[in-house]
Amino acid sequence: MPLAIRIFLVYVLFVGLTGYFVLNTVMEEIRPGVRQSTEETLVDTANLMAEILRDDFKAGTLNQNRWPELLKAYGERQPGASIWGLAKNQVNHRIYVTDAKGVVVLDSSARAVGQDYSRWNDVYLTLRGEYGARSTRSDPDDASSSVMHVGAPIRDNGQIIGVVTVAKPNSSLQPYVDRTERRLLGYGAGLIGLGLLFGAALSWWLSVALRRLTAYAQAVSEGRRAELPHYRGGELEQLAVAVEHMRTQLEGKAYVERYVHTLTHELKSPLAAIRGAAELLQDEMPATQRQRFVSNIDSESARMQQLIERLLNLAQVEQRQTLEERVQVPLAALVDELLETQQARIERKQLRIEKHIAADLALSGEAFLLRQALANLLENALDFTPSHGVLRFRAQRRGEQVEFSLFNQADPIPDYALGRLSERFYSLPRPDSGRKSTGLGLNFVEEVVKLHGGTLRVGNVPDGVEVTLHLP
Fold this sequence. Notes:
By secondary structure, this protein is of the alpha+beta class. It folds into three domains: 3-178, PAS domain (Beta-Lactamase), CATH 3.30.450.20; 225-321, Signal transduction histidine kinase, dimerisation/phosphotransfer (DHp) domain (Helix Hairpins, Orthogonal Bundle), CATH 1.10.287; 327-471, Histidine kinase-like ATPase, C-terminal domain (Heat Shock Protein 90, 2-Layer Sandwich), CATH 3.30.565.10. The protein is built from eleven helices and 14 strands. It is rod-shaped, with a radius of gyration of 50 Å. The mean pLDDT is 78. Its EC number is 2.7.13.3.
C-alpha cells in the first residue's frame, strides 16, 4: 500500500475517532443542558408565583379571587413567538398550589383540585424545607411524555404553609433539542469533511513530493538528466539536498576515474608520436626531414590541446543537470556569426552557402552552449564537404519547438557508422587529410541538445548528409 494512502488512512482514523467522541460527548450533553436551563427557569418562576400568591393563600381566598380565571386565560394564550426560527404558539407551564397537607387547592389545568399530592417529590420535599423537584411521565410507556415539576414554598413568618409547583413538559423542549442536534451534526460533519479534505490534500502533496524525489533518484541511477525537486524548508528540502549531495559525490568519483582512463588512453598516440619525433631530432638529418618532424610535433601537440579542451567542455556539460539560464537566442544572427568565424575555410573551399531561416526565429536556451553546439556542427560539416560543395541551413517552427537542419554535400555515411556518430571518441577519417578527429564534437552537441530538452538526428539524404536538431 502506498505511503500516502497509509498516512491518509491513519489521518482518517484519527479524525473519525476524535470527531465521534467529541460529537457523541456534546450530543449527550445537549439534552441535559437544555433541561438544566429550563429547570433553573422553573425555579425562578415557582418562587415568583409563591410570593405573588402568598397573601391570597394565607387568607384562604385563592378560589374566591380571579386566580382560576387568570390561570385559565394564561393556559389559552397563543404567544405567536419565533424563537431562533422555531414557532411557539401555546404556553406550556402548568401551575398548581397545595396546602400544608399536600392537597391541591388551585390548578391551572383544573383537573387536580382536591387531590392529595403529598407523596409527589415536588410537594413532599418542599414541605420538609428541601428542594422539591420531580420528572414524571404522563404516559408510563412513552419516554417523551415526561414533565418537569419544580416546587417553591409559601411561607408565613418563616413557616411553610403551602407549595406552588410549576410544571413544563419536556416535549415542548424537544424541537429546540432537535434543532441544536441537527445544527451540531451538520457543523460536525462539515468540519470532519474539511479535515478529511485537508488530510487528502496533505497526503497527495506528500505523495507527489516523494514521487518526484524517487523519479529523480531513478533518473540519476539510470544516467539520465533530471532536475532536482525544490522544496521550501523542512525535512523534504533537507532530503532533496542530501540526495543531490550523494549524487554529486558518487558521480564525481566515477566520472573522474572514467575520464582519467579515457584521457590517458587518448593521449598515448600523440605522446608516442611526439616522443618518437623528439628522439629522431636528436640525430643529424637533412633540414627538410627535420622540418617534417617538427611539424609532426606541432600538429600532435595541437591535437592533444584540442582533445583536452573538448574533454573539459564535454565534462562540464555532462555534469550539469539543468540550464543555468534560458534566454531567447536569434537563430539567423547566430548562424551568421558562426559563418563569419569560418569565412576563411569557406572561401578556400569555395563553398556555396544557402540559408533559409526567418529573421524573427529564436531558440530558447543557454546562449553559450547553443553557440558551441552549432559551431561544432558547422566545423564537422566543413571537414567533410568537398571543394565547391554546398552548405544549407534550414529552420522552421513545429509547435513549441524549432526544427533546425544543416545539410552538407558529401559522400554518404557508411551504414556501420550511422549508429555510432555521437559516440564518444568515435570518428571517421576526414576526406582531405585522412585523419580522424577527437570524436567528441557530435557527442558534445548531443549532450547540449539533451540538456535543452531536444533531440539530435544524423542521417544520409540525397547528395549528402543532414543533421537535424529539435530544440525549444
